[in-house]
Amino acid sequence: MKNAIHTALAGLLVLCFAAAPAPAPAQATTALDGIAAVVDEDVILRSELDRAVQNIIAQYANQPGQLPPRDVLERQVLDRLVLMRLQLARASDTGIRISDAELGQAIESVASRNRMTQDQLRQRLAADGIGYEEFRSSLREEMLIERLRQRYIQSRVQVSETEVDQLLAQRAIGGPEVRLANIVVALPDGATPEQVATAQRKIEGIRDVVNRGELDFSAAAIRYSDAQNALDGGDIGWRGYDAIPPAFVGLIQGMKPGDISQPIRGPNGYQLIKLVETREAGQQTLTEYNAQGLMVRVTPTVPVEVARQKIQALRDRIVAGEDFATIARAESDDSISRASGGDMGWFAINAWGTAIGNQVQMLADGELSQPFQSEVGWHIVRRIASRTQDVTEKNRRNQAREIIGQRKAEEEFERFLRQLRSEAYVESRLEAPAAPAASS
Fold first, then answer.
1. Can you say how many angstroms the Cα of residue 88 is from the centroid of all Cα atoms in its chain?
2. Which residues form the PpiC domain (predicted)?
3. Domain with CATH 3.10.50.40 in the chain
């Protein structure tokens, strides 16, 4: 269950709520806690780093051989903590806030995704040794960082139809997909020849370690990669060839599942790419429905039972032969469909909400539903027709738009994070680990 919660929080619990120090008396903290890193005018305490590292160790309890030595793991985790601390500070400086209501909704979502009530989630956290207030604080911080990202890229990332057309003309969007993993040895901007040579030796040494079978690719990524996905074993996930930088497409197309590339020099350093597996994409279809709807809204002056009785009376009139559209124009509280006589147009199953979607899906064409309740009131719907649409081309354009937007967003935010890191004063109190030696 702990792993399920980790997944639901998309990496939040990986750091075991270490982005902010746990409350402790100031004198005790000074006496017992060391400093792992200085970040501008703030510090990351040794206890914060220890909690985060212990959480990673717990995650890999069944695969302890996947983890690097303690000092290497500490460096990986500390890098994440530093970046989180810098992002949280920037979010605060720019006035980004997460309200208690938003936080409550997020907690409910986490509980729902793990098929729990909030009380069960609280109990599970306690059983795993995680304080509920720590959980709330860390979730709020994760939301702050995501909102900072959204705000930063919102005004900087625009995708034109011309860009979509150009990408579709250049690449086969919607074709086969590949699952990739990578290991990155980063280089600073303006790297010196000596730094480049050192990075090249390190990436070659990592590849030799993997090829000799001393570590598998995932373990090597955890141990040596400088990328943000290092603690995920270097996993990049599924990508279409259209979502891969053009310089790498030919290389990956020539690989088989399990193959690992030669070291590749990119704008941010050297990397190894592993082709994990492949899959084919097929034709994409979507079932759409056409229906008429009528709603009686529940309000302080129209309680639930009164609304139910009214919708039942309206249904009785329709069954008796009165025109659905005429009644909808006169009686429906749905301001969107009322003027068109309740016509809801063609829509995907849950476009009007799950309550309506569930009813429409159960009806036959021409059939009128019984009264049913949603979160806003009581309804009846008549399903007119259904159709299956080939949405492959539409999805190709949407996918192309998302690919371009995601790539631009990643580039922009990565640039922002590098600038944030370069402008900050960061002093690590940890020793750097040694790189693997390349075989001669």
1. 18
2. 175-277, 286-385
3. 176-281, 285-390
Q: Given this model, what pLDDT does residue 188 score?
A: 84
Q: Which residues of 292-319 are buried (b: 16+ CB within 10 A; e: fewer)?
A: bbbbbebeeeeeeeebbebbeebbeebe
Q: The CATH number of 285-390 is which of 3.40.190.10, 3.40.50.2000, 3.10.129.10, 3.10.50.40?
A: 3.10.50.40
Question: For position 24, what pLDDT does the model report?
Answer: 40
For the chain (length 440 residues), average pLDDT per consecutive 10? 38 38 40 81 90 85 80 88 93 92 88 84 87 90 92 87 85 78 89 92 94 91 88 86 79 92 88 90 79 95 95 97 96 94 93 90 95 93 92 78 86 88 89 56
Q: Quick one: fold of 176-281?
A: Chitinase A; domain 3 (3.10.50)
Write down the pLDDT at residue 279: 81
Backbone dihedral angles phi then psi of residue 98, each to the nearest 5 degrees? -120, 120
- Do 60 and 218 meet the contact criterion of CB atoms below 8 Å apart? no
| Interatomic CA distance for residues 39 and 60, integer angstroms | 29
DSSP 368: B
347, β-bridge pairs? 289
- Show contacts of 365-372: CB within 8 Å, 24+ apart: 368/315, 368/318, 368/319, 370/315, 371/308, 371/311, 371/312, 371/315
Q: What pLDDT is recorded for position 436? A: 58
Note the pLDDT of residue 281: 67
- Which residues, 6 or more positions from 290, have their beta carbon under 8 angstroms from its beta carbon? 344, 345, 346, 347, 383, 384, 385, 386, 387
Q: Is the dihedral of CA 330, 332, 337, 341 positive or negative?
A: negative
For residue 273, give the 3-state DSSP assignment.
strand
Phi, psi at residue 108, to the nearest 5°? -60, -40
**φ, ψ for residue 172 (rounded to 5)?**
-90, 85
**pLDDT score at 323:** 96
Report which of 337, 308, 301 is spatially closest to residue 327, judged by C-alpha positions. 337
Q: Helix or strand or coil: residue 347?
A: strand
Q: What is the pLDDT of residue 271?
A: 92
Protein fold of 2-154 = Triger factor/SurA peptide-binding fold (1.10.4030)
